[in-house]
Amino acid sequence: MRTDESTAVSERADAKAPVLEVSHLVKSYGGKKPVLDDVSFSVDRGQVVVVLGPSGCGKSTLLRCIVGLEDIQGGVVFFNGQQISGEKRDHAAAGIGMVFQSYDLFPHMSVMKNVTLAPLVAQKRAKEEVFAQAEEWLRRVGLWDLRDSYPSSLSGGQKQRVAIVRALMTNPEVMLFDEITAALDPEMVHEVLGVVMELARLGLTMVIVTHEMRFARAVADRILLIDQGTIVEESDDAEKFFSSPSTARAKEFLRTFEFEKVSHNPISE
Which domain holds residue 200? Predict the structure, then answer.
């Protein structure tokens, strides 16, 4: 094979390789039973992977391990084929953005300053480029008119949308979302999840931890169900997972979101 042909094949192979890979990850605290025990999965470019499971099963910890906010006791995390875990954790944040339950906005900074700080200071990008990108994203999420406002004057849904834009401003290849609607009133949940749905339509690679089942069913390319620190069911067909899960644990988990119609019987005197 000629050199140019070999290079072309290699480039095509790289394009098909997972952008994110978690291999046999183990996380424990103080030598106790692992919070995550031998967790392995991969994420293809442009794919939306939704992680489900009961509270305390290790979902949020998994995201924190991926981005390097938690030490791991076993396994490896790869990003674009390069190790970013263990001794390599200094590079874990490169190319991976994360949005948390709490907004963590700087209260003394306007919306515009909050979203432009990282690209201007950490990435040292040109001011004109950064402000143009900020305007584009803030308009897209319906917050451009609030660019000079401070976090204290914003609703919870508006704060979370600012947090999403702030993460997007560093141009991450992968976005991690950790229960981003957990602290929101029901009416604000839809506006925030609508932004994530739009990101999915744009082809952004995402790993999403959520308890919003209807949203998960609509946005997911793949579903991971975690229980007691292990993946108990994995499905490449979200609709099939919700309509006919293959494991008893998945069936039990989904039943917790179902209620039968209550029959109201008048009390006889």
Answer: 17-255
